[in-house]
Amino acid sequence: MISSINPTIKAGAILVPGVLLGLMFDIFTPLVYLIFIIVVTFAFTDISLKRWLLIFSPFVLFILSFSWTRMLYTSESFQGGSILFEFWYFQMTTEALMVSISLALRSLCFIALSLLFILTTDSTKLMLSLMQQLKLPPKITYGVLAGYRFLPTFRHELEILRQAHRIRGVGRAKGIKGRVQQFKRYSIPLLANAIRKAERVANAMESKGFTGDRNRTHYHEMKVRRRDWVFFGSMVGALFLTVFMSYYFGYLNIFGREIN
């Protein structure tokens, strides 16, 4: 279901909760919304749990590391509450612990929202939607799409260059000077091929009558349907419902201020 949502509306449904979550400093709101995102991800998409965890897990380790640092080096405005433990110059209080946990949960929400968008959105449909719904210039959208399509080709060409160098006895460079020379050996042929490919694409687009005019017809039209707005309202509405529940139970904390 989510894969068929209009990419522009889907991006709005991801960005709005992401921005609003940045203002929440309590634990309850991001925790409940994170559970909601995970449920939506596996209930309305065909993303496998193994693939999702493979991408999500490295971010968890990174978030835990900077949350721990945030807890030890928190600002004076969040140093209230009782002292849990004190070691040398470091002092951890209950309020600093709560803020660091909230930061970790908010970051996990951002990652989960990003994965929900990235893993369910086709790049071509995204560019078409940006061009048709947000009226972005075709030169920008088609240019970005063409560049994105070239990335796998560059990776393949880089591997061919490496294999060619190995056949000719050029091993892996050592030291800073050797790595700089190796970078030159790789970058110049790749840049020459990129210029050649870009020129071919430009000639092909021009031969098919592409002038960059915004008033153009599209073979594949991206329309905004009722289910797109239902998805947008569900994602944003779920956040507001979570905020209301947090306020009702007395957990709500917006930008360091408790709202009761």
UniProtKB/TrEMBL annotation:
Assigned keywords, A-Z: Membrane, Transmembrane, Transmembrane helix
What the entry lists under InterPro entries is as follows: ABC/ECF_trnsptr_transmembrane (IPR003339)
Record Pfam families: CbiQ
Subcellular location, record wording? Membrane
Give the record's membrane topology: Multi-pass membrane protein
Give the highest taxon in the source lineage: Bacteria
Q: Where are the transmembrane segments?
A: 20-45, 52-73, 96-119, 229-250
Please report the name of this protein according to its UniProt entry.
Answer: Energy-coupling factor transport system permease protein
Organism annotation: Alkalibacillus filiformis
